[in-house]
């Protein structure tokens, strides 16, 4: 099964068409933990995904995990991101296990110097690299949460480069309000298409956000060679 590069950077945005809800729960108002089921196009569950946000003295720590499988192919990924209060990245760790492919690396961002340093711990011959970054550069995970914060304030996030191993150009477009069913409950959501381009990626993902203060992602549709997979929030 093909695993779309930067899968979780795609949980990124929606349009703030309704007034924020009275109860300010979830990011960026408080720590948050979200649980998703990853589903086959037929509706069969393939596994689970989790997203968490924890406020720290210096900003935020984020973590995303994916544990899913089809016969002969297992995915067990974990990504961690640390960012300032302004959601500028300070560190990104990627621990990837997809079938026979395994990658473990860490990128450290020096926002003052405008550079980043990446160390590939596995494979052992992965080496190191240094590259220039934009002001207040954001890794893909920090960008996910930056997008939600912006949308909660009534702004659609601008197109920009985010970092997830490679640099990805991401463009978001509002596609209108749409009623979807999540957990047997119908909800009016804001529908966004997210276009992602990178060295080995060129695809579009659909994201559906709740009209709450935190702009909670309810459903993500991800194109794969086997069909469109979905991530649905479990409440």
* Physical arrangement of strands within the biggest beta sheet: 8-7-6-5-4-3-2-1-14-13-12-11-10-9
Unreliable stretches, pLDDT < 50, 5 or more residues? 5-22
Which structural class matches the secondary elements?
mainly beta
For the largest beta-sheet, the strand count, sense and barrel status come to: 14 strands, antiparallel
H/E topology pattern: EEEEEEEEHEEEEEE
The tally of structural domains comes to 1
Helical content (DSSP H or I, runs of 4+): under 10%
**Could you say which overall geometry the principal axes of the C-alpha atoms support?**
globular
Radius of gyration: 17 Å
Would you kindly provide a written description of the structure presented here, covering whatever features stand out?
This protein is mostly beta strands. It is 6% helix and 58% strand. It has one helix and 14 strands. The chain has one domain.
List the helices and strands and how they pair.
Elements: E1 32-39, E2 45-55, E3 59-70, E4 73-84, E5 89-98, E6 101-110, E7 115-122, E8 128-132, H1 140-152, E9 160-164, E10 166-182, E11 185-198, E12 201-209, E13 217-224, E14 227-233
